[in-house]
Design brief:
alpha+beta; 25 strands; 24% strand; Putative circularly permuted ATP-grasp superfamily protein
């Protein structure tokens, strides 16, 4: 049984009361016209994502559902406290494991999960970034299973994507349905770009003179999230650069401009660790900046998020985040983890192999809905094939129960129907820890599907937080 966020028993829940009549009385021809209008806007301004390996044009239009997801202010306040708490603990963990490793000395987390993790970067051991912040934009993926039951599905500490969709979803809804916003008190999200710029500026290195110069480093227009990179640079009023636009001279990083070299203080990188600097990581990288890591280690430039931050969002490390909260903050977790089996543990391994048809199994470094098995939705052949992959490398996988993700009303071809959703709020960590009231709601548009990723057929919704 799935929790319906709009209908509870025979009653419409309070946050959706103002939308119930609007949804039910909208003529089908008007709905189709508005849906076409939304798609036209998305296409005109280039809101796409890329899917490679399937043939044809890799750029896809992300499906947009006009029915917003709504939270009461009281619901949001609890989520906000929980997300901020988690972001603080994850940054404390990163400061610790790249320093003294007290949590490992205390045997609260296995040493091998950290120091033998592919995402752990030995090149930055002992380096403390400004304000001790390693992950500056933390995306926490949340699912709801009941009225007051929220769970963290996973943490994203490197370069969480999707915030451009959060902002554009709101812009399109306000453009198409201005009366809804005039008659309802909805918290704004449009402050995010300025908050992000302030957050990045607040972690400028000590060697910075005057106002810091912030840039976004992109792998280029072939990257699946390139639209977001260019969108955020435009919204923040900063430069979007590729590796070839930057160079190192002495203790600093510079940007090539028509007026000559300009020093760069903060790099919001959307390039993976291994491609950042060919002199430190992959020698064949054409995306990074030679010598960048020497400048970073010497305190001449800040990189957001810091190289090596990915060790905190590994899916095996995820199971220990509640312990991090207790260890570093001395608090009980506000948001719960999903029950998780770590297949490097013998008992967990045996249990999962005997219950593959009931569980969701994920690669510890997987993302985008790839590298996973949804047992109840898989065939016997698919389960048998996945079993072989697990047996070949058990430590590469974790397993979780098939969650009863909540549903929200969604416009579909036949009219309105419930579809499963999740939520990704974006927490900014710098001088302060902040997040705007809302986030990216992803929706599984296929009937019965629990996979919300856009690369797997999912879409997006506007997320409303009602003012009191």
């Amino acid at each position: 049984m799935y929790y319906n966020e709009m209908i509870e028993g025979s009653d419409v829940r309070e946050p959706y009361s103002m939308l119930f009549d609007w949804m039910g009385t909208m003529p089908s021809d008007l709905r189709q016209m508005k849906q076409a209008e939304a798609e036209s806007i998305f296409r005109r301004i280039g809101i796409t994502f890329a899917v490679y390996g399937e043939g044809g044009d890799p750029d896809r239009l992300i499906p947009f559902d006009m029915m917003p997801r709504v939270f009461m202010q009281s619901e949001w306040r609890r989520l906000e406290r929980g997300v901020k708490q988690r972001a603080r603990a994850l940054n404390a963990f990163l400061r610790d494991v790249y320093g003294r490793g007290e949590i490992i000395r205390a045997r609260r987390i296995p040493e091998r999960l950290v120091y033998q993790n592919d995402a752990f970067e030995k090149a930055v051991v002992g380096v403390v970034p400004p304000r001790g912040v390693y992950s500056h934009i933390v995306g926490i993926d949340l699912v709801r299973t009941g009225r007051d039951e929220f769970y963290v599905l996973e943490d994203n500490c490197r370069t969480p994507s999707g915030v451009s969709y959060m902002l554009e979803n709101r812009e399109i809804m306000m453009r198409m349905f201005p009366a809804l916003f005039r008659s309802n008190k909805i918290e704004p999200v449009d402050a995010y770009p300025e908050l992000l710029r302030q957050t990045l500026a607040s972690v400028a290195p000590r060697k910075c003179d005057g106002d810091p110069t912030v840039v976004i480093l992109t792998p280029g227009h072939f990257n699946s999230a390139y639209y977001e990179h260019s969108f955020l640079a435009n919204q923040m009023g900063i430069e979007l650069v590729e590796g070839s636009d930057l160079f190192v001279d002495g203790e600093y990083v510079y940007m090539r401009t028509t007026e000559g070299p300009k020093r760069v203080d903060v790099i919001y990188r959307r390039v993976d660790d291994s491609f950042l600097d060919p002199l430190c990581f992959r020698r064949d990288s054409m995306l990074g900046v030679p010598g960048l890591m020497d400048v970073y280690r010497a305190g001449g430039v800040s990189i957001a998020s810091a190289p090596g931050a990915g060790v905190a969002d590994d899916k095996a490390v995820y199971t220990y985040v509640p312990e991090m909260i207790r260890f570093y903050l001395g608090e009980e977790p506000i948001l719960k983890n999903v029950q998780t089996w770590s297949l490097w543990k013998e008992d967990d391994y045996k249990y999962v192999l005997s219950h593959l048809d009931e569980l969701v199994v994920k690669e510890v470094h997987g993302s985008g809905g790839y590298g996973m098995l949804i047992g109840p939705k898989s065939t016997a052949e698919e389960i048998a094939e996945f079993r072989k992959r697990i047996e070949a490398n058990p430590g590469n996988y974790i397993a979780q129960p098939t969650l009863a993700l909540s549903t929200c009303p969604t416009f579909v071809e036949e009219g309105v129907a419930p579809r499963h959703v999740d939520l990704r709020p974006f927490c900014l960590c710098g001088e302060r820890v902040e997040l705007v009231p809302g986030g990216l709601t992803r929706v599984a548009l296929r009937e019965g599907s629990l996979v919300v990723n856009s690369s797997q057929g999912g879409g997006v919704k506007d997320t409303w937080v009602l003012s009191e």
